[in-house]
C-alpha cells in the first residue's frame, strides 16, 4: 500500500493522536498549529513561577491512555508520572445566608464509604448505588467496545444483531435525569452521579442515559493527576510522535485548505503553502468548513451550524495566591442545591448564571512545581452559555461576584492574597481556538448529536480531507479525542488501501 503524506491542521489531542497513528503506519506527517504551543485547548499558562493548565485538568479513563500508548508498545509512565487522587474531589453545596447552612462531602474510591455516604442522605441509597454502579460498569464496557472504540458512522452500522444485543438496557433514548431518578430521589445524590455531564457539555435533561458510564469512570476507575499537569500529557504524546517522525510546526496559522486527494495544500498566513496527499483537520469543524474551505468543498451550510447545540463556554480565572488552600481539595465543585436554573441559563435562555455551579482546581495541593514556595495555584471555572457577551465590564463584575461566592461557600477568601491573575472566556476561546460561539468543548452530547448524528471523519465534499477531534465521533473530552485520532487515521489508511486495490 502506498502511504500518503499527511498534513494535520491543529495540534490538539485529536490531531496529535492522528499524527502518531499515521506516522507509525509509515506516513510522512506534518502537524501545523496556529498557536505557539501544542495541545489545543490543553494549553499551558506560565507566569511568575506559576504554571496553569488552561483547559482540561481531570485525568479520567486511564484505560484509554494505556490503550493509546500500548498501540506503540509504550506505557503512559514512559512519558509522565501519575498520582491517584484521594479524595477524587470535594463538593460544597451552597447554603443560605451563611456558610453554616451548607453541606460538604468528599467523593473517594472507597466504595464502602460511598455507600454509607449515600445511605446517610436517603434510606436504601447505598444498595441503589451498588445497582447504579453495576449498570454504569456494564454501560462502560458495552459502550466503549461497541460504540466508542468501534466507529459507526452510519445508522445501518447499528442494525446488526451483535450491536442490538449489546445495546439493550443502555438507555440510548432516555435522558440522564430520567435514568438517575429511577435510582435516587435526593437531589444531592442525583447531582453526585451527574456532575460529570459538564465534561460532556450537556445537561441532565438533554444528555442520553448512555453516559451513566461516567459514574464507573469516576468511582471505579478513579481520578488521577499527571505530574506537571495535562500539559505533561501533551508533551508525552508529542514526544511519541516525534520518535516516529512527526514534524511539528507551531505559530503556523492556516488560512485555507485547497486541492484534492494527491494534491492537497494548506495555505498559511504569509503566503506559504504546505502540500501533501491528504489533510486531517483537528481545527474546529465549523471553522474549517466555513472559513478554510471554498464553498463547493463544504458539507454543511451556515444554517446547519446555526442549528447545532454547542457545549458550554466557560468563564475562567487563573489565580496565583499567597498561602495554602486548606479548605479545598485538588478538585472541588461548588453546587447550588437546585442547579436547574444554571443549566437553563446555558441551554434554554442564555445568560450569565445568577447562582452558578462551578469548579475549582488547586493542583498545588498535589504538585509543588506549579507554584512558588509559600503560594498556591488555583483556577476557577464557571460553565456559561456559548456566544455570551463577555465585555471587560461584565467579566470584572462577574469575577468579583465569583470571589464573593467562593468565600461564602468554601471559606476561602482570596481577595487580599492574589499575586497573579488572568481571565479567559468566550472571546478568548473564539480568538485563540477559532471555536464556534466560543464553546470550550465542541458539540454537546445531546441525543441528536450522538454517534452517527455527529459530523463524520471523512469529508463527502472534498476528497482527501478528513476530520478529527471533539466535533466528530466519539465526542468531546481528552480520552474521546485520542480515540477520534485513531478513527481518523484508520479512515485515511483504509481509503489508501482501497485505492491501491482498485488501481
From TrEMBL:
Residues 14-493 form the Amine oxidase domain. Signal peptide: none annotated. It comes from the Archaea. Gene3D superfamilies: FAD/NAD(P)-binding domain. GO terms for biological process: carotenoid biosynthetic process. GO terms for molecular function: oxidoreductase activity. Pathway: Carotenoid biosynthesis. Keywords: Carotenoid biosynthesis, Oxidoreductase. Pfam families: Amino_oxidase (PF01593). InterPro entries: Amino_oxidase, Carotenoid/retinoid_OxRdtase, FAD/NAD-bd_sf. NCBIfam families: crtI_fam (TIGR02734). PANTHER family: PHYTOENE DESATURASE. This is Phytoene dehydrogenase.
Amino acid at each position: 500500500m502506498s502511504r500518503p503524506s499527511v498534513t494535520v491542521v491543529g495540534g490538539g489531542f485529536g490531531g496529535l493522536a492522528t499524527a502518531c497513528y499515521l506516522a507509525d503506519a509509515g506516513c510522512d506527517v506534518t502537524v501545523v498549529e496556529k498557536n505557539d504551543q501544542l495541545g489545543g485547548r490543553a494549553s499551558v499558562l506560565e507566569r511568575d513561577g506559576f504554571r496553569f493548565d488552561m483547559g482540561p485538568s481531570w485525568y479520567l479513563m486511564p484505560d484509554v491512555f494505556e490503550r493509546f500508548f500500548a498501540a506503540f508498545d509504550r506505557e503512559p509512565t514512559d512519558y509522565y508520572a501519575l498520582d491517584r487522587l484521594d479524595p477524587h474531589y470535594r463538593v460544597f453545596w451552597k447554603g443560605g445566608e451563611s456558610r453554616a447552612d451548607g453541606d460538604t462531602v468528599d467523593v473517594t474510591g472507597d466504595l464502602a464509604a460511598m455507600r454509607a455516604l449515600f445511605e446517610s442522605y436517603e434510606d436504601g441509597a447505598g444498595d441503589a448505588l451498588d445497582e447504579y454502579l453495576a449498570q454504569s460498569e456494564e454501560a462502560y464496557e458495552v459502550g466503549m467496545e461497541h460504540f466508542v472504540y468501534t466507529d459507526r458512522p452510519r445508522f445501518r452500522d447499528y442494525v446488526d444483531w451483535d450491536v442490538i444485543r449489546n445495546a439493550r438496557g443502555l438507555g440510548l433514548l432516555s435522558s440522564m435525569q430520567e435514568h438517575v431518578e429511577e435510582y435516587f430521589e435526593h437531589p444531592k445524590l442525583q447531582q453526585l452521579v451527574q456532575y460529570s455531564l459538564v465534561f460532556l457539555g450537556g445537561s441532565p435533561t438533554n444528555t442520553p442515559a448512555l453516559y451513566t458510564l461516567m459514574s464507573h469512570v469516576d468511582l471505579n476507575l478513579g481520578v488521577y493527576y499527571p505530574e506537571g499537569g495535562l500539559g505533561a500529557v501533551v508533551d508525552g504524546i508529542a514526544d511519541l510522535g516525534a520518535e516516529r517522525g512527526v514534524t511539528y510546526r507551531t505559530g503556523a496559522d492556516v488560512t485555507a485548505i485547497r486541492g484534492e486527494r494527491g494534491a492537497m495544500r494548506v495555505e498559511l498566513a504569509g503566503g506559504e503553502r504546505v502540500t501533501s496527499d491528504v489533510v486531517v483537520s483537528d481545527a474546529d469543524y465549523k471553522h474549517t468548513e466555513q472559513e478554510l474551505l471554498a464553498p463547493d468543498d463544504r458539507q454543511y451550510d451556515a444554517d446547519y451550524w446555526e442549528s447545532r447545540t454547542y457545549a458550554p463556554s466557560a468563564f475562567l480565572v487563573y489565580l496565583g495566591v499567597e498561602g495554602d488552600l486548606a479548605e479545598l481539595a485538588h478538585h472541588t465543585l461548588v453546587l447550588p442545591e437546585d442547579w436547574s436554573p444554571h443549566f437553563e441559563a446555558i441551554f434554554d435562555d442564555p445568560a450569565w448564571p445568577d447562582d452558578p455551579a462551578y469548579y475549582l482546581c488547586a493542583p498545588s495541593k498535589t504538585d509543588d512545581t506549579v507554584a512558588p514556595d509559600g503560594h498556591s495555584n488555583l483556577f476557577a471555572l464557571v460553565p456559561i452559555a456559548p456566544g455570551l457577551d463577555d465585555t471587560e465590564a461584565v467579566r470584572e463584575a462577574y469575577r468579583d461576584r465569583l470571589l464573593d461566592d467562593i468565600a461564602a461557600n468554601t471559606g476561602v477568601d482570596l481577595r487580599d492574597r492574589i499575586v497573579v491573575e488572568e481571565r479567559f472566556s468566550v472571546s478568548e476561546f473564539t480568538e485563540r481556538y477559532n471555536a464556534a460561539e466560543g464553546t470550550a468543548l465542541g458539540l454537546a452530547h445531546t441525543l441528536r448529536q450522538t454517534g452517527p448524528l455527529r459530523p463524520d471523519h471523512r469529508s463527502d465534499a472534498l476528497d482527501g480531507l478528513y476530520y478529527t477531534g471533539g466535533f466528530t465521533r466519539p465526542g468531546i473530552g481528552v480520552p474521546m479525542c485520542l480515540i477520534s485520532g485513531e478513527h481518523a487515521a484508520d479512515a485515511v489508511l483504509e481509503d489508501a488501501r482501497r485505492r491501491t486495490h482498485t488501481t
